[in-house]
Structures are given as structure tokens and as C-alpha cells.
Design a protein that fits this description.
mainly beta; Deoxyuridine 5'-Triphosphate Nucleotidohydrolase, Chain A; 6-stranded antiparallel β-sheet; 4 helices; disordered C terminus
Length: 419
């Protein structure tokens, strides 16, 4: 193990599995800078979200807070809280810790997940030296989801020390690699983009990624549960689950609390092979909304040997809190924190590891949806002009007779003024 800090790369994670630090894991599930975690069929419907007290086993929480033992033969109900055992367990050395995030596909269907372990009083954070089982809280927020044992909906990234770049290191790396690019692939000058924690990105509400008037610039989940998403089907009609958002007339979009949005950044991002990146968690200084539920970006995202071809838009999973929030085109929307890799992974995103989102353009939906026809307008389109209803006059219909109102028995009851 190197003495300098860094995120654990592909080849070292495979060594960790072989050394018994991660039990129950498949080497086929190793990504350039993370490990996909696997669902089992042990599922409990919970009364609510539980965070273990220090030293408290998850089994004690199940005895206290489960409503019943659930079955994956049935879809997870929208809004239901489920606790599912993961196939993997950990026996980490004292020099390695981990963090966990949704996979991109599960984040894009508003399937919220958080990982907990025996006696761990924080979500999605595994301390160095942890030994024990790991579990996942799963809640479909926009529509019911049919999942299966063996599905992978979240991922774990391992670290040796603090791998995050500081402000000066972010500045040096930005100037060297030009992390942000415009749609033409040209570097975006680092004027106000570098902060104390990472690189700022802004929202695209003008359809610059799609490059056409009337283009779909985002998606909003349908209010209420209309259909069940099945993770073994890859041909769902997106209009059964989402409403397309067209380019707004005033370059702004109002986020409604309780709705879930798929949007994308104005800038393209580059993650060179010697780095990983993570989209920072909810920051109230940017507004009362959360801009993502799947935060990991692997080494090689948006990378190409030809510098003119580098860069890919970051897709955002957005939810407003408390009250309506108005997003304006070009407004800061997320913060990307870069992390140094312990060494360059033997396999990088897109080039060596298959991905569903390597060449994504615009607000790409999850892999379970067929590609929508962006030119066809639907009645539920947001910002689409509504068609006037035809006015039909039928001359042959007789006028309806006037009907005298009938006095109901309760109408003559004496009213009492309660002042």
C-alpha cells in the first residue's frame, strides 16, 4: 500500500477481494474506482429510517422497526422504506475506509438508497477497520420499482487517507487538464469555477446540449404513481413515468417540492485517469434544492486521447425542498470535488469498462427507458404551447329545462352562531 493518500483503483480492489477484505463480492463488479454492491432477497418493510447507535447491530434495528419480512416477488411501493441485506461484507484493514453512493441508473429513477452497517452511526460512510455486514435502505420516491436479488443499485469507493484535492491542488489540476469544456470542446477559463471544495458547474436550461430549438432540456416525474418500473426491462416508455421539459421562454424553471427532475449541466466535464470525482452533497448556499442522488464519477469520464473530443455533460437528479425554487439558465447547480487515485486504474470509464452513459448528450434518462422522440410533443410537455380546444356548436340540441332547487332536510335546521 502506498503511503500517500488516494482512492483505491480497479486492480487494487481486485486484490482486496482476493485478500478477504471484501467477502461475497464478484470481481466482475469492480469498476475503475468503485465496487458495485449486490442485493440479496432478505428484505424488510420498515416503519421508517433508522440509524444505528454506536455498537448497535442491524438485526436489533430490524426487530425494533420492521413491519414485516417483504418479498422481491412484488414491486417496492412508492414511498415505502425497505431495508435490504447486501451480499458483500467487509473486513477492512485499519488503513482503508469507504463511502457509498447510488449508481447513476438508480439515481435517475429516483430510487433513493443509503447504506448502513452494524454500529455505524452515519449513512454511506464506512470507517477504517470496519468488520461486519452492510445493508441498504431503499425507497422509491416517484413510482413503484420492481427489483431483483442480484441487482446492483449502489456502489462503494475505498480510500487510503484523505484523497480530496485542496484548493491549490484543484487550481493546478484545472489549469493542466481543463476540467470544464464548452459544447465545442474548448476549455472554460477558471474564473470563478474553483472554490475551496472543488469545481462549480452551472445549469443548462437552453438546450445547448441537444442544440435545437424546442429541444427537451429536462424531465419531471409524473405526479402520482402510474406505472411500475421493472429493472429487467429496458424498453419502458419514458412518457409513462416522466413529463418532458421544453426550453422555457424566460430561461428559468420553477422547481416544485415533491417533484423529481432530470436536468444537465451547461459545461462538459473531464475526469482524467489519475483522478476520480464526486458531486458534492446538498449545499444550502446554492438554493433550497438537492442537485444529485448519484455522486461518483469514475476516472476516464469525459476523457479522450484526442483533446478536442474531451468532455461530457453531467446529468443531475434534482429535488426542491420546502418551497418552490426558481432555477435560471447558467446558475451554479453543483460542485464537483476531485480526488487523486492511489494509482492509475488498469481500466478506465468508457474505454475499458462498458457504460450506458459514455456518450450521453443532454438530460439522458436511465438505461431502462427507450430513447424518446424529442421532436414529438405530448400533452404533458412542460413549457410546450398548448393547443386550443375546438369550439363546437350543435344547433339541434334542445335547451335544458330549468330545475327548481329542492329543499334538503338539513336546509331548515336552525343555525347557531358560534361567534
Amino acid at each position: 500500500m502506498h503511503n500517500r493518500p488516494g482512492a483505491i483503483p480497479y486492480q487494487t480492489m481486485r486484490d482486496m477481494i482476493r485478500a478477504g477484505y471484501v467477502e461475497g463480492a464478484s470481481e466482475d463488479h469492480v469498476q475503475p474506482s468503485s465496487l458495485d454492491l449486490t442485493l440479496t432477497d432478505e428484505v424488510y418493510r420498515m416503519r421508517g429510517s433508522y440509524l444505528p447507535r454506536p455498537g448497535e447491530p442491524i438485526r436489533d434495528i430490524i426487530r425494533r422497526g420492521s413491519l414485516y419480512r417483504a418479498s422481491l416477488e412484488y414491486p417496492l411501493e412508492c414511498g415505502g422504506m425497505y431495508l435490504i441485506k447486501l451480499r458483500e461484507s467487509l473486513a477492512l484493514p485499519r488503513t482503508i475506509h469507504a463511502s457509498v453512493s447510488n449508481k447513476s441508473s438508480s439515481g435517475r429513477i429516483d430510487l433513493r438508497t443509503r447504506t448502513i452497517g452494524d454500529g455505524l452511526a452515519r449513512f454511506d460512510s464506512i470507517p477504517a477497520g470496519y468488520t461486519g455486514t452492510i445493508w441498504i435502505e431503499v425507497t422509491p420516491k416517484s413510482f413503484p420499482v420492481k427489483i431483483y436479488a442480484g441487482d446492483r443499485v449502489n456502489q462503494m469507493r475505498f480510500f487510503h487517507g484523505d484523497a480530496r484535492l485542496n484548493t491549490l491542488e484543484h487550481q493546478f489540476a484545472y489549469d493542466q487538464h481543463h476540467f470544464l469544456r464548452d459544447r465545442a470542446g474548448m476549455p472554460v477559463p477558471a474564473v470563478n469555477d474553483i472554490t475551496t471544495n472543488g469545481v462549480l458547474m452551472t445549469i443548462d436550461l437552453m438546450g445547448e446540449a441537444a442544440g435545437a430549438d424546442g429541444a427537451i432540456i429536462g424531465w419531471r416525474s409524473h405526479p402520482g404513481s402510474r406505472n411500475v418500473l421493472d429493472t429487467r426491462r429496458f424498453d419502458h416508455d419514458p412518457y409513462d413515468f416522466f413529463e418532458p421539459i421544453r426550453k422555457p421562454a424566460k430561461d428559468e424553471l420553477t422547481l416544485t417540492p415533491g417533484s423529481f427532475y432530470i436536468l444537465n449541466t451547461k459545461e462538459n466535464i473531464v475526469v482524467p485517469p489519475e483522478f476520480a470525482a464526486e458531486m458534492a452533497n446538498y449545499d444550502p448556499t446554492m438554493g433550497e434544492f438537492r442537485s444529485h442522488f448519484a455522486g461518483f464519477f469514475d476516472p476516464g469520464f469525459g476523457w479522450h486521447e484526442d483533446e478536442t473530443l474531451r468532455g461530457a455533460a453531467a446529468v443531475l437528479e434534482v429535488e426542491a425542498f420546502g418551497h418552490e425554487s426558481v432555477l435560471r439558465d447558467g446558475q451554479p447547480i453543483c460542485l464537483m470535488t476531485y480526488e487523486r487515485m492511489l494509482s492509475v486504474p488498469e481500466k478506465i470509464y468508457g474505454a475499458d469498462v462498458k457504460s450506458n452513459y459514455t456518450a450521453q448528450i443532454g438530460p439522458r434518462l436511465a438505461k431502462w427507458f427507450r430513447q424518446p422522440d424529442a421532436t414529438t410533443r405530448h400533452p404533458g410537455d412542460i413549457s410546450a404551447p398548448s393547443k386550443p380546444k375546438p369550439h363546437v356548436v350543435t344547433m339541434s340540441e334542445p335547451a335544458l329545462p330549468e330545475i327548481e332547487p329542492t329543499l334538503q332536510p338539513w336546509d331548515d335546521i336552525e343555525r347557531i352562531d358560534l361567534g
